[in-house]
Specification:
10 strands, globular, hydrolase, 324 residues, 36% helix, metal-binding, formimidoylglutamase activity, Arginase, Chain A, 11 helices, ten-stranded mixed sheet, alpha/beta, HutG
Length: 324
Amino acid sequence: MTWAGRYISPSKALWQGRPDIPDGSCFFQVMQLIDIQKDAPAQAQPALAIIGFCCDEGIRRNHGRLGAAEGPAAIREALAKMPMQRQDILCYDAGDIVCSDNNLEAAQNALGEAVHFLLRHGITPIVIGGGHELAWGHFQGIEKKYPAENLGIINFDAHFDMRPLLTNNQGSSGTPFLQIAEAHERANRRFDYNCIGIQNTGNIRQLFTTAKKYETQIVYADDIHQGDMNKYFSLVNHVIYYNQIIYLSLCLDVFAVPYAPGVSAPQTFGLTPWQIVPALRKLAESGKVISYDIAELSPKYDIDARTAKLAASMIYEIVHHHKI
């Protein structure tokens, strides 16, 4: 396993909560820890698994403010205390992939192998970061498991993350969806990339040109703020209808800074949680989402753990609406 040297097994210390509540009431009580250096358990019911990507290297290369390597631990601590209403699905913590040597490419490959491992065992991944460079590693695992299926990608984000590659074809937190687009080109596959929450102030003119080249479908944050929900949900319905499987990515900088101060690139005109939740639920309930990720939590910039709690709330929505 090429990823084993970059893997850290999960820790029970992050899953703590009140001792005075009934068993099975909260995530800290139902979360099962699995070490994916070993074989995954043969679960008797459907399962989702959190896997962290502890990495700042992509953000460093993209000249952002660092701190996202600590994101996975903060999300787990916030999620641990949340109630668990659902009883027909298992929840696993599958540990972390770490990038401590600036070798982003090796860490992304390791994440891809770990995601593929979970998918191969019938477990739906929820990758938590870490910078949005996790998307390129995440996709590698999806591609390995589903090389021929029509894949729809939906990204809730203020940015396209389709910047040009750096020297020696190195990627960053700003390049993952261009890397995915180029992988589709090489394989002669249809590329269906859809962005919700894009901001004109967050993307230079050339990025709009790149997005157009790859026929990216866009719902601007402005559209949603001004109430154009028909365009918004038409895009969501289109992604569901025209694809066999869906990869859902959520960058926390899609949210406005009062809700998500703890990100690499805070957004003054970002969205509110309730502008995201209905679409997130609809996608999860479609039965077509085979993998999720939540990116760009930087706890050192968070206020009252707002962003960590928001990320945990998005996982709560995924877990409680994911169709099995």
